Amino acid sequence: YAASETTTDETAAPRRKGVTWINIDGVGDIEKLGELSRLFGIHPLAMEDVVNVHQHAKLEFFGDTFFFVARMPSGADGFNTEQVSLFLIDGVVITIQERPGDCLEPVRYRIANKLGRIRRRRSDYLAYAIIDAIVDGYFPLLDQYSEKLDEAGTLLENGGDRSLPLHLHNIRSDLLLIRKVVNQHRVALNEILRDEAEIVGPDTALYFRDCQDHIQQLMEAADTDRETCGELRELYFAMLGEKNNDVMKVLTIIATIFIPMSFVAGIYGMNFDSDASMLNMPELHWAFGYPFALALMATMAGGLLAFLYRKGWLA
Amino acid sequence: YAASETTTDETAAPRRKGVTWINIDGVGDIEKLGELSRLFGIHPLAMEDVVNVHQHAKLEFFGDTFFFVARMPSGADGFNTEQVSLFLIDGVVITIQERPGDCLEPVRYRIANKLGRIRRRRSDYLAYAIIDAIVDGYFPLLDQYSEKLDEAGTLLENGGDRSLPLHLHNIRSDLLLIRKVVNQHRVALNEILRDEAEIVGPDTALYFRDCQDHIQQLMEAADTDRETCGELRELYFAMLGEKNNDVMKVLTIIATIFIPMSFVAGIYGMNFDSDASMLNMPELHWAFGYPFALALMATMAGGLLAFLYRKGWLA
Amino acid sequence: YAASETTTDETAAPRRKGVTWINIDGVGDIEKLGELSRLFGIHPLAMEDVVNVHQHAKLEFFGDTFFFVARMPSGADGFNTEQVSLFLIDGVVITIQERPGDCLEPVRYRIANKLGRIRRRRSDYLAYAIIDAIVDGYFPLLDQYSEKLDEAGTLLENGGDRSLPLHLHNIRSDLLLIRKVVNQHRVALNEILRDEAEIVGPDTALYFRDCQDHIQQLMEAADTDRETCGELRELYFAMLGEKNNDVMKVLTIIATIFIPMSFVAGIYGMNFDSDASMLNMPELHWAFGYPFALALMATMAGGLLAFLYRKGWLA
Amino acid sequence: YAASETTTDETAAPRRKGVTWINIDGVGDIEKLGELSRLFGIHPLAMEDVVNVHQHAKLEFFGDTFFFVARMPSGADGFNTEQVSLFLIDGVVITIQERPGDCLEPVRYRIANKLGRIRRRRSDYLAYAIIDAIVDGYFPLLDQYSEKLDEAGTLLENGGDRSLPLHLHNIRSDLLLIRKVVNQHRVALNEILRDEAEIVGPDTALYFRDCQDHIQQLMEAADTDRETCGELRELYFAMLGEKNNDVMKVLTIIATIFIPMSFVAGIYGMNFDSDASMLNMPELHWAFGYPFALALMATMAGGLLAFLYRKGWLA
Amino acid sequence: YAASETTTDETAAPRRKGVTWINIDGVGDIEKLGELSRLFGIHPLAMEDVVNVHQHAKLEFFGDTFFFVARMPSGADGFNTEQVSLFLIDGVVITIQERPGDCLEPVRYRIANKLGRIRRRRSDYLAYAIIDAIVDGYFPLLDQYSEKLDEAGTLLENGGDRSLPLHLHNIRSDLLLIRKVVNQHRVALNEILRDEAEIVGPDTALYFRDCQDHIQQLMEAADTDRETCGELRELYFAMLGEKNNDVMKVLTIIATIFIPMSFVAGIYGMNFDSDASMLNMPELHWAFGYPFALALMATMAGGLLAFLYRKGWLA
User: Fold this and answer.
1) d(C-alpha D307, C-alpha D194), whole Å
2) How far apart are CA B121 and CA B130, in angstroms?
3) What is the pLDDT tens value at each position of chain E, 315 positions in all?
4) Given a contact as 3+ CB pairs under 8 Å, which chains touch B?
5) Touching check for C213 and chain B: CB below 8 Å?
6) What is the DSSP letter of C162?
């Protein structure tokens, strides 16, 4: 558990107050969190939400305290999220995350290097920058899924695989989940924009609208990928249909050629008594009976092969 | 039938009137309802709607009386709703529900514990809080359906089941129904927002807009789940297609191998008279006739097996 | 043909003019219609539209005359509509319908019983009430189709029926048609809302917006039902797929078991001359040749049955 | 090539200028068009577009000249369009079309008969009326496609046809094309509404919005028809599936009944030497051997028929 | 690497400043770019983006510098894009592209020939004209894909091809990518419209809105084409289904006719001892036994052919 304090005290811009960012990794040290809570007068209910890390992304106001719960994508494999609690109290931004390591490095970098607008503006802008960085953290996640879909596409081109539909289904479920979580942020940001007069200044509200734009892009990307899932499944169906067609063609070709020939063989396997009458299977006693039978079979097979060839099924 | 009166008389905030909430469980005691009706001057038509518990969610105005009919999800299994009638008359909020037990506990808790804004605001805010709690009651219901879909997904991963399409269809029909009911609330809330000048104050209107947001989320969640239904059905189709392909492959392999061999057996089962000519089935009298025939069959079978193996059908 | 005049002359509200509603059933009596036309100065082109009852729902203005053509659902079976022409001239509302019997009874009832706002407002409100009642007349119609879909669903649960896809297609075509007609009303109402300054007062415009809401609901309900059609068709496809799979399984089981056994029978049906050599079918002369052959067949059948059982195809 | 000049000089309405409509059929006579161009100071680039009749529908402004290119549906069969170029210069409306015969007759009729608002308003209204008439010309075209779809539906009810999917695809492609062309008009009209201050008066802008409404309807109708295409294709698939099921059932019934019987025949066609042992096919020498074999076959066939009947496959 | 400077110094319009356009092909000459950067005070971060040519389309503001990254379609085959960086600094427009050859020729032509509004307006209009030209460069690209789809349609009409689903999938993936890139431009343009007060004048903002319109059209066209992809795939499925049906019909016809006949042959191939009893295969010794058997077979075949004919499977 590490409490890193990043303080940015900008006094160059005259009419702006200094901005402090306190960033805490880990929610296990209840005592320290309690101390923090007392120091900044954070509502106990909010602290409960901080510690219980299974909150939806949401915005809450406790008096003048702006409390934003964000879900940050985390973990290398699959879709997992980590809760980031953000408080904006009297020009101080406090963020509490579950584990060290996050997608806020660009924000820290911009602060440290005095890049962009981040040091010229008030604490609500810093809150925006952090939330925006978290939201932007979903872009590489979605890229991962796009890549998985590309791989699935390549797999399909090489003939596909029976586990593919399930694999696609799992990707799609994850995308649906990502979309849901991202949408929670959208709803929470909507609330920020609605109450903009209170805590977030109108200037910063514009930036939050920008963040909404990114969320919109994320949701569209997720939708696009989900559509691609469906597309790949259709491709899989097309291949399955072709495979079925192939199997059936082989069966039909074999059956179509041999069943009539077997029938002829069956005919001349009958035991009718040639002695009883001239009509009873005189072929059996012809000198050329056997060659005749074989020729008959060959003719039938040839005719049927020609028919199948004309149908284009022998290619 | 129980009439519980929860009174919240907030006098701390100077310019706000006291707020009273009367909550009635059960609509069977016509007499008591009549008394209530007389006491608050509720229009008889509204009381009819209260007793006849098959109303759509809707909003009606009877003079200054604001009458909202909500449908609250109820029952542990499947999708059932219970009618909650809400009156807002002169700062008094009256709710009448079919059965005891509801999703309004969070509201009562917040009133009892003086949490949040609920005790600082007027009766229209209480009406909002109740309607919002009812709307939020659909979230766990939808979670149930999401869970059912997860189960169906797991079932599919393990091979699926023939009753699955019907099961998915039923889930989807319920989701459609939920969406319809939730949408009725949306339309009714739209009407509240339109007539906001009259009964609901502009401050509270903002909260109703928030409630609309939740309904939007509910509808999106229902749509998402319905989409997942379709997705699972597609997965089922993919598996069915594979199963069909498997069945057909087995048939084809068996037929492809044995039909030609049977044909050879049929040939040498023919009864051509070898005495009639040298051409008539001399093979039958060869010393190695039978081994030759068996070898011919084995060669054919081997060739066809190699062909099938190359097609990848033997795996 | 019956001309019923329902007059509602409200003088209690001081700043409101009296409102008259003239309702005519049937458009066959050209003379009476002409008289009416002359009396109220209705434009001949409008009268043409009244008599030619195949108009789209639309709104037209002839000077100060507001002329609305609505299509009212009529007939017990399937989807038919009847044209209702509504004029709003100088505070007089004239409606002309094709046949007696309509969905305007609630309006008449409310007028007769002085319920709601209908008698307190101007003629444009009456026009709204009539149009709204016509629009609301589509709700029971859609309920009929929902019911038909429920029946189709039950039919499917019980195994389905080959005429089902066509039946679903017909339902869906009707729903599409209903949607189209309802949408015509939406477009016409849009025109009312656009020209609201002229004839319809801003108060009543609000109600027309409410009517738009209902149309929106109708269209959503129709869309929902159409979606259910598609859903049922998919369910039907799933069942068809299972049926195909069943048929093919039976074929495969029978063929897989008997074709190899027949092959063995074929082998020992060959006529190789055992006298020619020891190699030629010595089995035929073994003491246990026949039992051996039968046992061979039984073993093959048993093995294949075990294989099929392991595939789960025998259940 | 015919140049018909329809002049409508309305002086009754005092504050309105006279309006002139010049209508030219054919774009072959370069000289006359050049003369026209000089007379009204039309930009050479615009004249190029007039002569090169493969323009998209679009709006352009050359100084004060309003230049609208519309595509008018033309030809009896399938979807073809003809370019109509419309200039609005100083109160003069000039339309140039490729061939005589168009969908502007209603406009001419209304001018000639002084109906509606067309003669009471300025030249921009005339431009609107012409554009609106062209847009409305797509309605009968779409009706044609609806009819074709109805025919396709009837064909399907009667068993369908193998060329149907292609036919539906072609209809759908045409509908997509119509939608695209209509959408070009929508975009061009959007531009008119945006620049409304300049050339089109605010009054007329309202009418252009009405025209947008019609385009919206057209696009919805085209979408509806395209959806019906998809619907019919699904119906076709359902029928194809049933057909496949039928074919497979016949195959299965025949195979299921005859393969086991043939196997029995195969058994008693074996040549085991009854002299070698008592165990070798004693049945062959039983007095009732043959009837027994036939009875065995009949029993098997009967049992399988009963099984198939119970499956419901014999109906 | 070629640096072409196109200067347009318009002094005719009095209240407008002169506009300069500097166009640089190639980003390899770091030194020259550095010089440019120093000359116009371009932020180093922006120059990084210029050189690293894998940026998304985006808009950034560095102080008063407007920095737009566009992706221009390039290359003759398939979908590739080239980065175009556009700076708008103090009335100077700088564009830097990867390779010579672009879709900006119409802009240059209009400047050189003093056509349209381009020389009468400020530098922000030039920026608009360039961005608009880049966006419009996607239209021919989409036309290419439409053409490919037309070809695929023609291929399908002529029987289709097994590689078609994959081909359609690839087209659709490209279309999805194009849509994504185009959408990035839409988002960036949204930002321009939002910050319109700062750098882009309100007049030009109108034109950017027009550009948005084009992007909207592009996205709709891409969606339309993707829909056509789906449509063609469905057509392919329909044909595959028909093909499967054909294959199965041939199999069924052959099997249905020959299996029963073979069974009869099998019967009379049995070796029951006629000497043992009168009941044992007396047919074998009938004078007309063989003709009778053949007639029986012919009758069966004829009956089954009639049955198949009645089913319509022989056509």
Assistant:
1) 74
2) 14
3) 444 444 443 333 333 346 788 888 877 777 888 888 888 888 777 888 888 877 788 887 777 788 888 998 887 677 888 888 888 887 788 888 887 766 777 778 777 776 666 666 678 888 888 888 899 889 888 988 989 998 988 888 887 777 888 888 889 888 988 988 898 898 888 877 776 556 677 777 777 877 887 888 888 888 888 888 888 888 888 888 888 888 888 888 988 899 999 898 888 888 888 887 888 888 888 888 888 889 999 999 999 999 999 888 886
4) A, C
5) yes
6) T
Rounded distance, CA A232 to CA D129, Å? 49
Contacts for C218 with CB less than 8 Å, ≥ 6 apart: C135, C138, C139, C142, C178, C182
Residue A255: closest C-alpha in chain E: E251
Residue A268's SS3 state is coil
The count of C-alpha atoms lying within 13 angstroms of the C-alpha of D264, restricted to the half-sphere facing its C-beta, is 20
As separate numbers, helices (DSSP H) first and strands (DSSP E) second, chain C gives: 8, 6
Q: Which residues of E touch A226 (CB under 8 A)?
A: none
User: What whole-number distance in Å separates Cα of residue D35 and Cα of residue C200?
Assistant: 50
Q: Which of C232, C234, C245 sits opposite B244 (nearest CB)?
A: C245
Q: Does C245 touch chain B (CB under 8 A)?
A: yes
Domains of chain C, CATH where assigned = 2-240 (3.30.460.20), 242-311 (1.20.58.340)
Contact list in D for residue C251 (CB cut-off 8 A) is: 248, 251-252, 255-256
Is A306 near chain B, with CB under 8 Å? no
Verify whether the Cβ–Cβ distance D272 to C262 is below 8 Å.
Answer: no
Contact A254 B249 (CB under 8 A): no
H helices, E strands: number in chain B? 8, 6
Inter-residue contact E255 to A262 (CB < 8 Å) = no
Phi, psi torsion values for A276, nearest 5 degrees: -65, -35
Q: Which of A228, A256, A279 minimises the CB distance to E250?
A: A256
DSSP string for D217-263: HHHHHHHHHHHHHHHHHHHHHHHHHHHHHHHHHHHHHHHHHHHHHHH
Residues 108..167 of B with a Cβ closer than 8 Å to C: which? 162, 165-166
Distance set, CA B157 to CA A152, A237, B165, B236, B240 (Å):
18, 18, 14, 9, 13
Chain E interface includes D237 (CB < 8 A):
yes
d(CA E269, CA E283): 12
Which value does ipTM take for this structure? 0.78
Q: Is D313 on the interface with C (CB under 8 A)?
A: yes
Give the DSSP per-residue string, E222-241. Answer: HHHHHHHHHHHHHHHHHHHH
Residue A223 token pair: 């939708």
Chain B residues whose CB is inside 8 A of the C304 CB are 254
> Residue B272 and residue A284: Cβ atoms within 8 Å?
yes
CB proximity under 8 Å: A 44-73 to B = 45
